[in-house]
Amino acid sequence: MKTQLKKGILEMFVLGFLKKEESYGYKIVQELSEIIEISESTLYPILRRLEASGSISTYQEEYNGRLRKYYRITDNGKERLVSFKKEWEDIKKVYDFILRNEEGDRNG
Amino acid sequence: MDKNEFVLKLKEALKNKFSEIEISEAISYYEEIIAEGVEAGKTEAEIIEGFGDIEKIVARITVDIVENRSDSKDIKKSWKSFVAILAICTSPILVLLAIGFVAIAIGLFLGFLGSIVGLISSFAIAIIVAVPLLLSGTLGIGNGFIVTGILIFALSFIGMLLIWAYQLAVFLFNKITKLFSRVIKKKVEVNTNA
After folding, report:
1. Is the CB of A45 less than 8 angstroms away from the CB of B63?
2. Which of A44, A106, B79, B192 is the most interior residue, by most CB within 10 Å?
3. Complete edge-to-edge strand list for the sheet that includes strand A66-73
4. Per-residue pLDDT averaged across B159-165, rounded?
5. Percent helix, strand and coil across chain A, each rounded to 5?
């Protein structure tokens, strides 16, 4: 996947996951890497970017005698997901169009 | 590599380039991941191996920090970001470009310095010439005012030149740092699978 597209999609991926539940670094990587390959060092700048843009907020909680950093989606993040879905509908239409055209080529 | 070694290496690679907060945020992220992994039954070495090359980790953190910083108006900070980005440059072309850029910056600075020295010396000569004339009465009070006016104008011009030189240098460093970080980011992301 081209990097620019992938970067944006990974942000949406994290937002989509956090919309379901608040979570922490290790768990986010575990869950996401079941769907696509993603490493901890890839996730770090994504989380930082999302936080810097106000799409997620963080808080710390004690767990097992240490601090665990939790990430939570903000209203801004939810809005970004909504507009991503809208944009995606257009992309999907283009994708379907390309497929239909190719079908037409084959049949005609 | 165990956790202590990894953290030490990461700290070493980031120190002097970034603020304490920026470094400790990155460190605590990785420390947390390692602690969670160990609790899930993995070894420290296994988890750290999963992170990938330390150089790439450092490159990613560096690009991320530099990009998230707002443009600094302070030349020391701009210079620091510039050096941090340069440190993770592995491409010879980029390093050459950077050397060229620094040469241009130094050239500009020397040019400004030259004009300032020129202005100061003409200022000094003007005083040397004007004062005896003024004292001997050859130069009237009116002319004295004119000379003083010219001198004040020259002084403020020198001040403005200094400020412009400073702003220009900061601007150039910010621009070039952004440019470099973009190039490096592309390389870092293309070279890794995930």
Report:
1. yes
2. A44
3. A23-24, A66-73, A56-63
4. 82
5. 65, 15, 15
